[in-house]
Amino acid sequence: MLNEVLNETREKMKSTLSVFEDDLQGIRGNRASTALVDRMMVVYYGQPTEMRQLANISTPEPMTITIRPYDNTAVKAIESAIQEANIGVNPNVDSGVIRLNMPPLTRERRQELVKVLGKRAEDARVAIRNIRRSANDDIKMLEDEKEIGEDDAHRGLDKVQEMTDEFIKKIDDAAKAKEQDITEV
């Protein structure tokens, strides 16, 4: 019983970390990254569709993202989705190919991105703590129902705290690395 709670807790924390790391990919750093647009939603024939399903996305140069739609009728929809996303760059369309020339980050924009990063990191830490609280509640319930003993309950609570510390450290490390990428000139 206790092992099930611990395994489930670890999986939830891993999932939270994975979502956070994916989220970091969408925050612009010093170089152009396809992650900035590949999950962007485009209204294509009335259906919201991820950009990566509609086009080949690449970075031929450090500050350029190239989007080649599989279907030329998607060009206008992709162009308007990029403009609506407000990522700070205007798309250039040239014979069915969309180019995003990323301007260098200004000091103000870097500071804004660091604030966004800080908020997302805190949201991820809160999610980890919520998972911890839920696991602790489950362990206490098992103890109250006499399915595990007091010693096992204490060991379980300690193990949950260790996992919490481990995943919060991973979130902090990932955030710190992304912050360096953003602030590096």
Provide a descriptive summary of the structure in words:
This protein is an alpha+beta fold and 185 residues long. It is built from four helices and six strands; from the N terminus they run H-E-E-E-E-H-E-E-H-H. The strands form two sheets. The chain has a four-stranded antiparallel beta sheet with strand order 3-4-6-5, with helices on one face. A two-stranded antiparallel sheet has the order 1-2. Strand 3 (55-61) and strand 4 (64-69) form a beta hairpin. One of its GO terms (cellular component) is cytoplasm. One of its GO terms (molecular function) is ribosomal large subunit binding. It is found in: Cytoplasm.
Short description:
This protein is of the alpha+beta class and 185 residues long. The protein contains 4 helices and 6 strands, in the order αββββαββαα. The strands form 2 sheets. It has a 4-stranded antiparallel sheet, covered by helices on one side.
Largest sheet: 4 strands, antiparallel
What class would the helix/strand composition place it in? alpha+beta
Work out the strand percent.
Answer: 15-25%
Number of domains: 2
CATH architecture of the largest domain: Orthogonal Bundle
CATH class of the largest domain: Mainly Alpha
GO molecular function, one term: ribosomal large subunit binding
Keywords: Cytoplasm, Protein biosynthesis
Function: Responsible for the release of ribosomes from messenger RNA at the termination of protein biosynthesis. May increase the efficiency of translation by recycling ribosomes from one round of translation to another.
Subcellular location: Cytoplasm
